[in-house]
């Protein structure tokens, strides 16, 4: 059995729990409360920035040009911040993506933990550990999207159709296969301790992926003293990214509904057929 397959087997119960988590079931059914979506996107935007930097650190430790190219391509995708899924989520929540990403939000405890976990492995670990720490992120989302497709064959009117199509796409599957192959190659030339550290990094990321969905669903924030951040000016590049895609009209750009901390908003999506 390949190293990646053995890690995947060891993580099976975590993958199962993620699939059963109400956030993921909400994605599958097309029903998620809007404040949950917005909390998720605010946290995930920052998560993806860190994730992108971790690939940059992997690039610095690459052994071959093929590895450098793989990391470089992933960084390219990430610099658009996985725009399509985030825009899809915001559109369902009735909020503008630009407003959500520009609203300063403190990293919630779990997102903070996950970011520090990846950064410390990236700084202190081997290339194999870095590939192991980023792999669950990719693997879990592709798995969720494919499972939704297999179980319910969502039609184009599914509220999260773009999210599902993005992660179930051949491009994401190809990126996943590339990472898995890389991990197996690196494991083949690793000693017992190195393999153990790779496994630890992988399993901790899997657990944190579960916690990340849970953080969004429970609107997790620091207690007892969440910090209120000053509004920061827009990222200079955010506009350019949006201009390259379908830019929302001005009315929706000024729509910041859902950015307040209200827990009583209704769920979205209702009982639309999948
Ligand atoms: C927390 C998290 N894990 C994985 C992905 C998929 O890239 C994401 N966008 N966010």
TrEMBL record:
Family from the record: Belongs to the TenA family.
Pathway: Cofactor biosynthesis; thiamine diphosphate biosynthesis
Catalyzed reactions per annotation: 4-amino-5-aminomethyl-2-methylpyrimidine + H2O = 4-amino-5-hydroxymethyl-2-methylpyrimidine + NH4(+); thiamine + H2O = 5-(2-hydroxyethyl)-4-methylthiazole + 4-amino-5-hydroxymethyl-2-methylpyrimidine + H(+)
Function: Catalyzes an amino-pyrimidine hydrolysis reaction at the C5' of the pyrimidine moiety of thiamine compounds, a reaction that is part of a thiamine salvage pathway.
InterPro entries attached to this UniProt entry: Haem_Oase-like_multi-hlx, Thiaminase-2/PQQC, Thiaminase_II, Thiamine_Salvage_TenA
Bias (Polar residues) ranges: 251-263
UniProt GO molecular function: thiaminase activity
Subunit annotation: Homotetramer.
Sequence ranges of Basic and acidic residues compositional bias: 237-249
EC number(s) stated in the UniProt entry for this protein: 3.5.99.2
Protein name, entry field: Aminopyrimidine aminohydrolase
Thiaminase-2/PQQC domain mapped to chain residues: 9-218
Segments for region (Disordered): 228-274
Keywords: Hydrolase, Thiamine biosynthesis
Cited NCBIfam families: salvage_TenA
Enzyme class: hydrolase
Organism (species): Alicyclobacillus cycloheptanicus
Superkingdom, natural source: Bacteria
Pfam families the record matches: TENA_THI-4
């Amino acid at each position: 059995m390949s190293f990646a397959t053995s890690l995947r087997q060891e993580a099976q119960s975590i993958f199962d729990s993620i699939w059963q988590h109400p956030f993921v079931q909400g994605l599958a059914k097309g029903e998620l409360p809007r404040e949950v979506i917005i909390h998720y996107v605010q946290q995930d935007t920052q998560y993806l920035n860190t994730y992108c930097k971790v690939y940059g650190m992997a690039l610095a430790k690459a052994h071959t040009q093929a590895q450098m190219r793989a990391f470089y391509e992933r960084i390219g995708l990430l610099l658009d911040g996985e725009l399509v899924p985030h825009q899809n989520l915001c559109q369902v929540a009735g909020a503008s993506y630009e407003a959500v990403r520009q609203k300063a939000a403190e990293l919630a405890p779990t997102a903070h933990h996950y970011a520090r976990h990846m950064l410390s492995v990236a700084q202190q670990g081997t290339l194999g550990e870095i590939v192991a720490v980023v792999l669950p992120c990719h693997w879990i989302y592709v798995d969720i999207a494919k499972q939704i497709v297999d179980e319910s064959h969502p039609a184009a009117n599914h509220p999260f159709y773009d999210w599902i199509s993005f992660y179930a796409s051949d491009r994401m599957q190809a990126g996943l296969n590339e990472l898995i192959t890389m991990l197996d190659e690196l494991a083949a030339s690793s000693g017992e301790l190195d393999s153990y550290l790779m496994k630890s990094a992988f399993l901790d990321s899997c657990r944190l992926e579960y916690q990340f969905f849970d953080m969004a669903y429970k609107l997790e924030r620091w207690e007892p003293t969440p910090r209120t951040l000053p509004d920061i000016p827009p990222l200079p590049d955010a506009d350019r990214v949006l201009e390259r895609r379908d830019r929302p009209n001005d009315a929706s750009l000024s729509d910041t509904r859902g950015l307040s901390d209200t827990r009583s908003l209704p769920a979205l999506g209702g009982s639309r057929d999948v």
